[in-house]
């Protein structure tokens, strides 16, 4: 029997509260499934197959499109609080009583909210390339990053600029990622719409409005947390990850060298090993 991989996992659908959620499941083992929450405008295919397959080698992994994004129906959230509630609804629709949760970038924003408002749902939390509500440097992105992130027809060059450090070595790793990311040729997910892009950027801006008191929310995250980040993220300042590590009571942090926003796509094998060890 052939093993289901990120490249071959069928897209499935589950309905809840008038939304048809698109998702994929693969892998087995582990105490609880690992749910992955995607980055800004990302869909099921925007995950790195090397990362997903390495995680799925040790546990069940579930990928999902937010409502109104790619193949999921419904209205895209304009706040992170709403996005978190949508993902809680999705886990309930799949009858998942407890999960491990990995949130990347905007997915990490939603993951923090989920851990705060459904503490019993989240067993362990992984926050990758993300930052806390109201922290310094979080109120939108610098102009060059925003231009590439909000391109009407995103290209590989846009991803390389945002996700990888502007060094020859990191950019070379980025090009390897692009090759993996395009490897699935059948049953690819629908590209995200411009409406979902704009809704998500509203959510990014609302989350990042300077608010020092909002940082205290992090002290309420009860589950063990692993924070993953590149040493030079141009999109969400790396210092924000150190801030989260200092405020979340049971947190550890792993910084990957010569890496920017998508350290988990630059070092998929190393990140999967670190995540699997943490979840185990």
TrEMBL record:
Any one Gene Ontology BP term: acylglycerol catabolic process
- UniProt keyword list: Hydrolase
InterPro entries linked to this entry: AB_hydrolase_1, AB_hydrolase_fold, AB_hydrolase_sf
The GO cellular component terms are: membrane
Signal sequence, renumbered to the chain:
none
Q: Which residues form the AB hydrolase-1 domain?
A: 33-266
Keyword Hydrolase part of the UniProt annotation: yes
Is Membrane among this UniProt entry's keywords? no
User: Domain of life here?
Assistant: Bacteria
GO-annotated molecular function: monoacylglycerol lipase activity
Identification of the protein by name: Alpha/beta hydrolase
- The source organism is Streptomyces phaeofaciens
């Amino acid at each position: 029997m052939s093993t289901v991989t990120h490249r071959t996992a069928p897209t499935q659908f589950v309905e809840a509260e008038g939304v048809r959620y698109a998702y994929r499941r693969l892998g087995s083992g582990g105490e609880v499934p690992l749910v992955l929450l995607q980055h800004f405008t990302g869909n099921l295919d925007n995950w790195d197959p090397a990362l997903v397959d390495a995680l799925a080698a040790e546990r069940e992994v579930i990928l999902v499109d937010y409502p109104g994004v790619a193949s999921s129906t419904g209205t895209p959230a304009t706040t992170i609080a709403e996005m978190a509630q949508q993902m809680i609804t999705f886990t309930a629709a799949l009858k998942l009583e407890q999960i491990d949760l990995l949130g990347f970038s905007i997915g990490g924003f939603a993951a923090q909210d989920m851990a705060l408002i459904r503490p019993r749902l989240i067993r362990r939390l992984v926050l990758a390339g993300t930052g806390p509500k109201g922290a310094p440097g979080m109120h939108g992105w610098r102009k060059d990053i925003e231009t590439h992130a909000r391109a009407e027809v995103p290209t590989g060059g846009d991803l390389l600029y945002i996700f990888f450090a502007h060094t020859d070595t990191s950019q070379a790793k980025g090009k390897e990622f692009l090759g993996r990311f395009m490897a699935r040729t059948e049953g690819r997910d629908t590209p995200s719409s411009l409406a979902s892009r704009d809704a998500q950027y509203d959510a990014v801006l609302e989350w990042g409005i300077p608010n020092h008191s909002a940082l205290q929310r992090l002290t309420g995250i009860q589950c063990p947390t692993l924070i993953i980040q590149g040493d030079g993220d141009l999109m969400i300042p790396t210092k924000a990850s150190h801030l989260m590590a200092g405020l979340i009571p049971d947190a550890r942090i792993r910084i990957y060298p010569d890496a920017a926003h998508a350290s988990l796509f630059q070092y998929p094998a190393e990140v999967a090993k670190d995540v699997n060890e943490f979840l185990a």
